[in-house]
DNA sequence: ATGGGCATGTAAGGAGTTACATGATTCA
DNA sequence: TGAATCATGTAACTCCTTACATGCCCAT
């Protein structure tokens, strides 16, 4: 016997956080699905990503639930620009206030290193080296984005929070880079 | 028209990494499904977790594919102890040598902070404070595990890699803790 | 005129979790 | 003797990605 709430079916259950990133992005400015997708890629991607195949259905659901509205469009217009409704804002705020949880990390690199004793030291060193290169690129990208925010945007409540999350990325990546260096020294037997 | 490789169906496709953590754990010692589940919880959980509902079917699949074998059991014995086969070891090694990818991070905390301008500063401060407490506990737990490894196990190739992954957790958590401190100062306007 | 980026989607299915059922063993 | 933990498993479902289809717009 299963006691499952069947009314909660579909893609818009309590646990689906895609709708909150959609609503959140629409508090910054009115956007199309494509714009939201691009905004995620260039701002939250390192701690939260979404694929178009997930985004568009959720956006359609938000519209049906009255959390967003779509601007009147002529027959010619292809681009659909959405804005957040008062109800959408209310829903977003309620979620933002709730204690966050469910941090998920899945690092294939660490999983492979954990079992690294089964292959040669050279194999493991190579994995770490590759990661090192990637991290250096990421740190460069974050720094560039940071400069961009400071120059293009006025200091505001919004930008303050953007910088805080960016600084998380910078700080953690920097720590990872240091770890790479130390791990390589251990593996090289220095 | 869809050109999808239908032969790859089921739960044991190329992208399913659960089988590799199963195989990897069995290189440490022979284990039951339950043992593997516990081992994951106490060793790789902070960078790779698995639920029992995922683990048992994959273990059954590994058995069917000849990657693991199950020890002969009397009718009385309930516990099924598995060991890795030569073929299983070969498959694991091939995977370990391939360049890792697909690092996935989903941080609800950072997502909420990114949109933090929509709620009060106090709400955001509270989220960071909670995270700080959690981090301190985690760092304590990692340190305890580190001591445990150093005392219970002889220094070996295996333990060397365990310590490297553990040190990753320590280093990154420490950096996160520092970030918490800085972020709180920014939000408090110090 | 055509190739690339803009833009909106859908189909199929794999990955993974949750919520159970079921029964043995251990120990206070 | 009864609760906790050990132990194995399945059903149902959600989440998410991949791999397409489709067509517009714009610059070379």
Task: Itemize the secondary structure elements and their pairings.
Two copies of one chain form a homodimer.
Chain A: H1 18-28, H2 33-43, H3 52-64, E1 68-70, E2 82-84, H4 86-97, E3 104-106, H5 108-114, H6 121-152, H7 157-188
Antiparallel strand pairs in A: 1-2
Helix pairs in contact in A: 1-4, 6-7
Chain B binds a DNA duplex (28 and 28 nucleotides) through residues 1-4, 8-11, 13, 15-16, 18, 32-35, 37, 50-54, 56-57, 60, 78-80.
Notes on the structure:
Two copies of one chain form a homodimer. With 190 residues, chain A is mainly alpha-helical. The first copy, chain A, is elongated. Chains A and B meet through helix 1, helix 4, strand 3, helix 5 and helix 6 of A and helix 1, helix 4, strand 3, helix 5 and helix 6 of B. Strand 3 of chain A pairs antiparallel with strand 3 of chain B, so a sheet runs across the interface. The structure holds a DNA duplex (28 and 28 nucleotides).
Computed structural class of chain A: mainly alpha
Q: What is the overall shape of chain A?
A: elongated
Look at the structure and give the mean pLDDT of chain A: 89
The radius of gyration of chain A is 21 Å
- Uncertain runs of chain A: 1-9
Please work out how many helical segments of chain A DSSP would assign. 7
Taken as a percent bin, the fraction of beta residues of chain A is under 5%
Oligomer category: homodimer
Helical amount of chain A: 55-70%
Report the span from N to C terminus of chain A: 60 Å
Largest interface: A-B, 66 and 65 residues
Biggest beta-sheet profile of chain A: 2 strands, antiparallel
| Major sheet: arrangement of strands of chain A | 1-2
Per DSSP E runs of 2 or more residues, the count of β-strands of chain A stands at: 3
Helix and strand string of chain A, N-terminal first?
HHHEEHEHHH
